[in-house]
Amino acid sequence: MLSAENLEAIRAEGGRILQLGRRDPERQVPQYPGWKMRDLVTHVGSTHARTTLICRELPTDRPSAPRPAEGADVLDWYEANLAEMLVTLEQSDPDAGVWGFWSDPNLGKWERRMVIETGLHRWDADQSFGDPVPLGDLVALSALNEFEDMWVPRLGEIPAIEVMATDLGRGWVYGAGAPIASVSGTASDLFLRLMSRPSPVVLPEAWAGVVDALDGPPR
Asked: Which domains are present in the chain?
């Protein structure tokens, strides 16, 4: 059985996305120019649906992310997918091996990914309606723990940096070798910057342009 704390975070963050989507599905999403809230809701719903499929079928190759049927109410579809994924995750074995983005992927890592994915896109949804609430500690900590395995391999040849979460009293080194710089901030601000969101955190020049290309419009 997977973590009750993680599942509750996914439920809360996912519910907030749904709430904002219902408030104004035509609202523009600043993080993804040209996207409206219904597009963001569709993307997150597809990710949730794929996670359900992965939990049930335990694939060893990357499966396609399901999409809503033509003419379907995207918000109702999203709500059903979120509920179904939470039930399926709760019944799953976290140690079961599956396809994934990381080394030694298993369902426990998919649970963590859904905490991060849902929490980060909740921030995107909040941003559409004004000043967004920072990422929660669980979301930000999960994200910073995952970053080395999930994102650093995509950065190519890049010098190591140290990041220090001032609010959590934790630090991480990303990349091989001695760090060329130490960057500090709240855990939320650190991860938001690493994912090319607005943040007061300043990255060294060698990192800034590279991470800005990590999180383009989702496919």
From this structure: 4-128 (1.20.120.450), 137-211 (3.30.1050)
E strands present in the chain = 161-165, 170-174, 182-185
pLDDT in the model for residue 2: 74
pTM above 0.85, yes or no: yes
In 61-204, beta strands by DSSP E: 161-165, 170-174, 182-185
Beta bridge partners of 161: 174
Structure tokens at 112: 């963590």
Distance between CA atoms of residues 199 and 163, nearest Å? 14
Tokens of 43: 């993307």
- Residue 163, strand partner residues: 172, 183
Which residue type is seen at 60?
Answer: T
Residue listed under structure tokens 């219904």: 38
